[in-house]
Each structure stands twice: as C-alpha cells, then as structure tokens.
Batch of 4 targets.
Target 1
Amino acid sequence: MTVLLLAGIVLTLILLMKQRDFASVGMVRNISYRLKGRSLSTNYWQAGIALFAANAALFALAFVILFFLPYGAMVGLLLCIPLSLFTWVIFSEVWEGAMKDKVKMASIGSSFFLLFLGYIFWYYATLEPAYPGDDLFMAWIGVIIATIFAIGAMCVSMFVILRK
C-alpha cells in the first residue's frame, strides 16, 4: 500500500511539472475551444458548480473503483489522479474572465473537499465504539489519511486551476 501511495505521489508530481505540456495536448485544446465563449467560461458560479460536480463525480468514481474492484487502489491511483488533473486543466484553460473571478470559481469548485473534510470530522466526532473496550485508533488513522487526502487534493486543484 505504501508503494502505491508513493507511486501516486510521484505520478502527481510528474503531471504537475508537465501540466503546461498537458494543457497543449490536442484533446484539451479541442475541449477548451468548444467551451470557450459560453457562460461556463465567464460566469464563475456556473463554472464553480460544474467544477464541484466534476470533483464529486471523480471522487465517486474513485470510491467505486477502490471498494468494488479487485486491486482497486492501484487502478484508482492510475486512473483518477490523471483524470482529476485533466479536468482541472480544462477548467483552467476554458476560463476567460478576470483572475479574481477565477479564484472564486476555483474556491467554489474545490469546496467539495472542504465538505468532505467536514463530513469526516463529523463522522469521527459521532463515532461510538461497537462494543465496550473497542479501540478507535484505526478510525483516527482513517481521519488523518482522509484529512491529508482532502487538503492535498484541494491544494493541487487550486494550484492547477490558478496557474498562469
């Protein structure tokens, strides 16, 4: 599991360093060309809600892959991280408005991870032992991992979307 986590981190770092090349790929340019000039490229509320929905859909895809497929963690790391970066690069390339509105759009879209973090903290705060003497240490480790995931995903999405 540690090797998979490190592979995901290395893959993310490579994709972040190569995001300029990633943004010039034909498919990204084609999608962004088709979306430019529409309200999604100038209205930060619509773009932010669409980004929020995209983040939620990608999280749901990762959840389904992780829990319902054999070797799901490996497939999830190899599939969902590039898909997330691809989505965030598209939203960054499509945006035609002011930088101030782009920050608002990115904040609205990345608030999914804040809501996820709030849910995790609420779940842990209301968690009760299944039987007397049950140790909740593993639940605490899950909270730490989910916190790292949520903060990391939010920071990477903001970094990718707000690049110049």
Target 2
Amino acid sequence: MTSSRRPALRLHIDWTRCDGRGLCTELLPTVLDRDDWGYPLARDHTPEPDIPAHLHPDARDAVRLCPRLALTLHPNN
C-alpha cells in the first residue's frame, strides 16, 4: 500500500442506539438503503459495509452527525 492510499474503512451500526432517523442513508446513499421503518440497511447485505475511499469524508460526516451516536468507523483489516 502506498502512503497516498487511505486504509479501507467499514461502518458499524449500533442497533441498540439507532432509532431510524435516516440521516446516514441520506449521506451515504450508495452504501446504505432504508428498510420499511427507516432503519439503515447495507446495500451489500453485510452487517458492516465497506466504505470506498472516495466516501470516507461522507462516512465521517454521518458518524459525526448521527443524532443517536449509533455509527462508528473501523479499519477494514
């Protein structure tokens, strides 16, 4: 990996905190969809979707702006 490449990230949703407000799905529409109740679903059907490098700023915004503090980003090891 070159120093100019950012490490891959994955998005964790804490389901005990999430109340389905949907802000994350608006900030990450190519990564997240909503279920019938407004809760986020990964479009790739994984529990912790990978975040492409070009979406890292949007993912960080989603984490920072989540009103229930239900989102965290983790390195994809």
Target 3
Amino acid sequence: MGSCESTAKNSEEKKSGENIEQLNMSRLSSEEEVIKKIAIGAGIVLLGWGLCKLINNGGSNNKKMMKAPGRNDSYIYRDEFESNPSEYFRRLRD
C-alpha cells in the first residue's frame, strides 16, 4: 500500500469515526429530549393532581373519618357515629 492509499484510508476512518460520533451525539440529544418530555408530562400530572386535591379539600366534605368498629377495611364519619353509636351497632347486626 502506498502512502496515498494509506492517507486516504486514514481519512476515511476519521470520517467514519466522526460520523459515528455524530450519531452518538444525536442519539444522546434525542434521549435527553425524551427524558425532558417525560419529566414535563409527569410535572403536569402532579400539578393537576395537586389542584384537584386543593379543590376537593375546599368543599364541604371536610368531615373526620374513623375506622368502622366491627368491620375490616371500612371507614365511617366520626360525627355520625358519635351522634348515635347504638344505632350504628344496631344496623351492623341487621
């Protein structure tokens, strides 16, 4: 192989290496864009959830809850139970 052929081969290898590097950089930038879009989407969802919580808590349904006596995984309003506990237990037996 002559010196011209060797120089041409080295030049092609450099171009090939540069192309691979450019592809890697473009792949990284596209991955970063996807990550940014996911982060923005998650932020929007969290913001919406927070606004819903604010709106719902501002309503008239701010009663305290308690675990329902005699039931598993059930909750009732505390003020309704305390106003007439015997009625609660009577309905529980029916």
Target 4
Amino acid sequence: MSDRPSMSLSGIVLDAPDARELAAFYRRLLGWTVSQDEPDWVKLAAPDGGPGLSFQTETAYTRPTWPAGPGDQRMMVHLDIKVEDLEVAGAHAAASGAVLADFQPQDDVRVYLDPAGHPFCLFTTE
C-alpha cells in the first residue's frame, strides 16, 4: 500500500502577455476546443480526453530566447508534438502563426516558436 495520494496531470499552463491570443494560436495549430474562457485564463481541451493546455496572462512575461545563452531568459517548458510529416506539419504551424527557429538541433525534429516565443517541437517517429 502506498502513502501517495491519487494524482493525475490535468493540464499544462503557459504564461503569455495575452492568454486569449496564445490560446487562439494553439487552437488553430492543434484544432482543440476551448473548454474554459476567462479574461486572463483560457483552457483548451484535448480531444482524446488527455491533459489540456491552458494559458494565463502574465503582465511581467519575458519572452524566452531559443537557444538561450548566458544571461538570457530560458524557456521553462516546451511542447513536443508528434506529426506524420514534418514538412506538412511545419507549413501548417507557420500558417497558424509560428516561426521556424533559426537553430535546429536535430534532423528529425523542427523547433518552432509560438507567438509568445515559447519553443515547441514537431517530430516524427520514423
């Protein structure tokens, strides 16, 4: 018997200068629906019932630098998004408002920056 209480991850939260703006980007990118919408908080629901993705407005938000050097604001978290085709998914990400990062550390992964500067990775398992 474990003394650990029952816990489950219900979501990931990203800070942004404008929660609604960043949520709209990820809604375009992922096609997820809004499950909660408040002035400074938006939550997107995963269609498979998995953890959702939430956004909160943070007025003191500092955009991370990718890749970070000494003294740069570092990312706190990044999202890994599995795709079937990197080129097709990358074109969709760009059309949704993402920017391809200048630095790409791997051939089978593409790093993009969302409108608030959070890096996220598109990858395949081929």
